[in-house]
Amino acid sequence: MSAARIIAIIGALVGVFGLVLQYVLLYGDMTGDGVSPLMATWRYFAYFTIITNCFVTAVMIRAALNPNAQCGLNAPRIELMAVTAILFVCIIYNLLLASRWDPQGWQKVADVTVHQVVPVIFALYWFYRPHGSLKWGHAVFAAIYPTLYTVYGLTRGAFDGFYPYYFTDPTQNSIPQLAITLLVLMIAFIVGAGVLLGLSKLLGKRAAKPT
After folding, report:
1. Mean per-residue pLDDT, 31-38
2. 36 by DSSP, 3-state: which?
3. How many domains does the structure of the chain reveal?
């Protein structure tokens, strides 16, 4: 069994655990305050962290079941998008958000799982995947994901008034401030994808060398 498949199996289990635990905790807190189950579920899927954890967990589940697949969710450009997104979750959370609250108990477990453990596992999984087929334009392709989330987040927020991240909240930032923030984040995402793409090219060349 390949290293990538072993890591994918472990990552899929950890990913499902983290997502279920986070849902149970949020659901319990919100319904305990009188919020409807439907609204609690709607709120759960507001977060870039949750959606991205769902994304990478799905990638690992498919890789665990079909380790030789290099299409669909396991296409190299999709996996580049996924690894960039989940590492973005880890970095942005720890730089901008972690200091704003102090989770305890099971919430701490869920927090560490979705923001740190899953990103590390998925990065390891991606490292052991086949490399060498990516094109530089795929770094821009990877940015489609956060762009779609931005549209989704701002649209749903316009209806229910909830914006999960203060730096993308139009009620706390002016339109110019919001535009600059989103532009900086998008550029950072493309640069991050470009760095990973460069690493992928190096790994591909190393794998291609005769032994």
Report:
1. 93
2. coil
3. 1
